[in-house]
């Protein structure tokens, strides 16, 4: 018996940063995002031993430890160790991991992996959990157990899937699924480019700098966060009514506001690519994730999309084929080629 799960990666359109404590507790945060057809995968093969053997198929890493030995976090597959500990796993298994994007890409891949882990373990241990509970548990694993700096949007995006407007308050998170008309979704997909800039970044360092500036009351950071929250609401409205050129222009405004949060968010290479895209006809865009590298999202009128794409490839940008995916976390059992129920 093999228990499998997959959780989608996401692109964040607006509001990123307002989900990072302590801002949402003090002012409330708001993020607009959508999941795409790139995934984090987990496979669990239970056995009767008291050994957990974990293998990353992407990095050819392997760890093994005996239950109930104390978990030691040493930088080697710590997300898995923490998930097994927090979920109370007390039996042996082989665990295999795979992701369509590396950590630090800006697509929320680390959080999607934790959501996939929670989903697979929940299926294995037969624990009833809602999407909210799964997302919250994934957040606790990353931010509390492992003390990794970051926000809350990625876990909820991966657990729920689709287009969501997510609001963050002092004591709660509210996920508002958006009913985007098919023609609007198709048009948005047609006009967006996803370009890999290189330079995998350490998002925790950027977030720590942003939080430090906010706690000190740095005017630019405080102003940038307020602008990002307002832009998230404006962008949600533009998307719901199909005003996509306005959506593209708001992407640009959001990127300018995002850069106010920390001097580490952009760099000369990213600025060069972004300015080139605007020069060739893009209406707006933003770097996905905390900043510093990874994927650049651009909105281009269809008459200019190919021109922008060619220009970016000429200077070393790598365009990625992708599409929206409206499904969140999924888990199922595979037994000798026979597929059993999906949850």
Automatic annotation (TrEMBL):
Q: What is this protein called?
A: GHMP kinase
**Can you tell me which residues the record assigns to a coiled coil?**
none
Q: Where are the transmembrane segments?
A: none
Source organism's superkingdom?
A: Bacteria
**Pfam families given for it?**
GHMP_kinases_C (PF08544), GHMP_kinases_N (PF00288)
Q: What GO biological process terms does the UniProt entry carry, in alphabetical order? A: GDP-L-fucose salvage
**Which parts of the sequence belong to the GHMP kinase C-terminal domain?**
238-312
Q: Name one GO molecular function term.
A: ATP binding
């Amino acid at each position: 018996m093999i228990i499998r799960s997959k959780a989608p990666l996401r692109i964040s359109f607006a509001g990123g940063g307002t989900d990072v404590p302590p801002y949402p507790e003090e002012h409330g945060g708001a993020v607009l995002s959508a999941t795409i057809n790139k995934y984090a995968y987990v496979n669990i093969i239970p056995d009767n031993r008291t050994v957990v053997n974990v293998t990353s198929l992407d990095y050819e890493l392997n760890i093994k430890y005996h239950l109930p030995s104390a978990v030691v976090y040493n930088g080697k597959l710590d997300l898995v160790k923490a998930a097994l500990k927090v979920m109370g796993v007390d039996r042996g298994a082989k665990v295999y991991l795979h992701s369509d994007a590396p950590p630090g890409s800006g697509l929320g891949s680390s959080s999607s992996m934790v959501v996939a882990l929670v989903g697979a373990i929940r299926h294995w241990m037969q624990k009833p959990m809602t999407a909210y509970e799964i997302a919250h548990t994934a957040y606790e694993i990353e931010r509390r157990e492992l003390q990794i700096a970051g926000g809350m949007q990625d876990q909820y995006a991966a657990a729920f899937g689709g287009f969501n407007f997510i609001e963050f308050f002092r004591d709660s998170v509210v996920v508002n699924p958006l009913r985007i008309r098919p023609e609007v979704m198709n048009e948005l997909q047609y006009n967006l480019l996803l370009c890999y800039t290189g330079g995998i970044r350490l998002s925790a360092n950027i977030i720590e700098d942003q939080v430090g500036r906010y706690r000190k009351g740095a005017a630019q950071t405080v102003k940038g966060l307020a602008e990002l929250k307002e832009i998230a609401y404006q962008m949600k409205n533009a998307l719901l009514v199909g005003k996509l050129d306005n959506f593209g222009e708001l992407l640009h405004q959001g990127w300018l506001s995002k850069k106010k949060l920390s001097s580490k968010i952009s760099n000369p290479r990213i600025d060069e690519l972004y300015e080139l895209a605007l020069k060739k006809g893009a209406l707006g865009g933003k770097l996905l994730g905390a900043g510093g590298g990874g994927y650049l999202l651009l909105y281009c009128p269809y008459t200019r999309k190919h021109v922008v794409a060619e220009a970016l490839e000429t200077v070393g940008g790598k365009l990625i084929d992708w599409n929206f995916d409206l499904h969140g976390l999924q888990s199922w059992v595979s037994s000798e080629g026979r597929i059993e129920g999906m949850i």
